[in-house]
Amino acid sequence: MKRHLISAGDLTKDDALLILDTAEELARVSERSIKKLPTLRGRTVVNLFFEDSTRTRISFEAAAKRLSADVINFSAKGSSVSKGESLKDTALTLEAMGADAVVIRHGSSGAPHRLANWVHGSVVNAGDGTHEHPTQALLDAFSMRRRLGGLEGRRITVVGDILHSRVARSNVLLLHTLGAEVTLVAPPTLLPVSVGDWPCEVSYDLDAVLPKSDVVMMLRVQKERMNAAYFPSEREYSRRYGLDRDRFAKMPDDAIVMHPGPMNRGMEIAAEVADSARSTIVEQVANGVTIRMAVLYLLLGGETA
Amino acid sequence: MSDPRPEPRADARAVLEAPDVHRALTRIAHEILERTKGGDGVVLLGIPTRGATLARRLGDRIEQFEGVKIPVGSVDVTMYRDDLRLRPARPLGRTELPPDGVDGKIVVLVDDVLYSGRTVRAALDALNDLGRPTAVQLATLVDRGHRELPIRADYVGKNLPTAKSEKVRVYLQETDGRDAVLLMKGLPAKEESR
User: Fold this and answer.
1) Which chain B residue has its CA at the smallest distance from A43's CA?
2) What is the CATH number of domain A134-280?
3) Which residues from B are below 8 Å from A303, CB to CB?
4) Disulfide check for B141: which of A4, B51, B71, B157 has CB 3.0–4.6 Å away?
5) Chain segment B138-186, per-residue pLDDT in tens
6) Which residues on chain B are in Cβ contact (under 8 Å) with A301?
7) CA angle, corner A269, sides to A204 and A50, nearest 5?
8) Is A235 annotated as a binding residue?
9) CA-CA distance, A294 to A286, in Å (whole number)?
10) Cβ–Cβ below 8 Å for A25 and B85
11) Which UniProt keywords apply (chain B) (predicted)?
C-alpha cells in the first residue's frame, strides 16, 4: 500500500481488499466492552479541517483514539489560517509538532496532494473540494459487502449531484476496482464534463435503472456549492430524481439504500425510505469508524520510512 | 485464514511426522483434562493461524475422550505485538470468543511454536482487554527454547533443542495439506517464532 491515501484510484484491488478485510476484524473490537487497542500508542494524528465537517472529523477522531493514537484537532476557523497563513506553513507547523499522519479536509481539490509533498508523515484525504473522499468510498464498499456478501458483478446506482460530489468519484473508482458495475443517474446539468472517461455508465432516467440495481446510493444536493441554477425547482428535482416510496417499491426486494449523509429528507430521499430496514444509513456511520481504524492501522501500524 | 506454507526446502528435516503430531495432541488433551479436573470451566483460545487450528483439534479430542464440549475460540495478537514497527503493517487474524466469554474461566492459550515468548506476552495483553480469566495456561506443540521473557508452557508437545539460526515450521492438514514439524538450517539470524 502507498504511504498516503489521496485517491481511491491509488488503491489496487489487493490494497482495497486488505483494508476491507482488516476492517472486518476491527469491527469486532467495536462490539466488545473495551473498545481500544494499543497499536498506535505514541503516534500523533492531526485532523486538519479547513471545511466544516462534524461527522467525518469525529469519525477519524474516534478511530485514532480507539487505536491509542494522540489526536490533535485543527480547524481553520479561529486559527492561524484566518490570519492568512498558507497551507504550506500550516503543514510545516504540524510537522514540527511531530504529526505521524495528517487527515485533511479542504475546500480546494488537490490540497491533500500538495500537502503530501510537504510533510513526512502519511496524508489521508478526508475530502478535497469536488475531487475525492476515499475513506467514504471505502466505508460504503464495506457496508455493501457486509450486506450483500460481495461486490463482484453487483450493480450499483449512484443518484444525484455528481458534479459537486467527491463521494461519487471515489466510489466509482473504488467500486470499479472491486469489480462492481456503477451507473450514475443525474440531471445532465449535475454531471461533470469528464464523466465520459469514468469507468461507469451514465443514465438520466432513474425509473429505468432502479429495477436492475443491487444498491441505490442517494447523494445530497449540495446547495452550498451551487452558484447557478442547475435545475428548475427543488420540487421538480425531487419528482424526477428523489427516492420516494413508489420508486423504492420498484427496486428488487433485497436491494439496499445508502446515503453518505447529511441527508435532506423529503428532497433526495423520503423519510420512510431512509428509515426502512433496507437502508444502511446508520450502519454507514458505525462502519466509518471501523474503516478509518483500518486505514490508520495500515498506514501507521507498521514500520515508517 | 493465512496462505498455506510453501513447499519445504530440500534441507528441511522432519522432527515430528503426522503420527507424532497426533500423539502429542492426544497427550496434551489428556493433560489438560487431568490438570483441570475434567475440563470444568476451561476455554481453549488459539493464536491464529495454526494455534487456532490446534485449539480446535484439542477441543475435538477432549470431546471424544470425555464427552464434554469445551468452548474453543481464537485471539489475534497482531495489534498487541511489540515488533509492529519493525515490519510493514500486517494483516489481522481473527479474534473469536466463545459466547460466554473468558470471565471467570480457565483459559488455555494454544500456539504452534513457543520461542521468544513475545507472542504469548502479546496474547496476555490481548486477553486483558477481553475479560478477566481465573487463570491462564499455555499449550504449545513445540517448545524450541531461547526465551526472551519469563514465560513457560504448561503443556508441551515436544521440547525441541534448536540453534537460534534454525527455523521451525509447523505444517497442519487444515492449512498446509499435511501434518509435520520441520526443522531447517536458517539463513537470517533474526527469525521470529510464527
Assistant:
1) B85
2) 3.40.50.1370
3) 85-88
4) B157
5) 999 999 999 999 999 999 999 999 999 999 999 999 999 999 999 998 7
6) 79, 84, 89
7) 90
8) no
9) 13
10) no
11) Glycosyltransferase, Transcription, Transcription regulation, Transferase
Please name the residues in contact with B46: beta carbons below 8 A apart, sequence gap of 6 or more. Answer: B52, B53, B54, B55, B56, B72, B73, B74, B75, B109, B110, B111
Structural domains for chain B: 18-166 (3.40.50.2020)
Interface test with B, best of A21, A26, A39 (most B CBs within 10 A): A39
Residues 6 or more apart whose CB falls under 8 angstroms from that of A223 comprise: none
**Domain A8-133+285-300 in this protein, CATH class:** alpha beta
Q: What are the pLDDT digits (tens) for A70-129?
A: 999 988 776 777 777 888 998 888 888 889 999 999 999 999 999 999 999 999 999 999
| Mean pLDDT within A196-215 | 95
Tell me whether residue A154 is annotated as binding: no
Q: Do B94 and A25 touch (CB under 8 A)?
A: yes
The alpha-carbon gap from A5 to the nearest alpha carbon of chain B, in Å, equals: 15
Size of interface A-B (CB pairs under 8 A): 48
> A245, exposed or middle or buried, with CB in 10 Å at 0-12, 13-18, 19+?
exposed
A136 is in an annotated binding site: yes
Per-domain boundaries in chain A: 8-133+285-300, 134-280
What ipTM did this prediction achieve? Answer: 0.86
The model carries a pTM of 0.92
> Nearest 5 degrees, angle CA A127-CA A132-CA A134?
80
A38: which chain B residues are within 8 Å (Cβ-Cβ)? 79-80, 125
Q: Following DSSP, what letter does each residue of A170-232 receive, concatenated?
A: HHHHHHHHTT-EEEEE--GGGS-GGGGGSSSEEES-HHHHGGG-SEEEE----GGG--S--SS
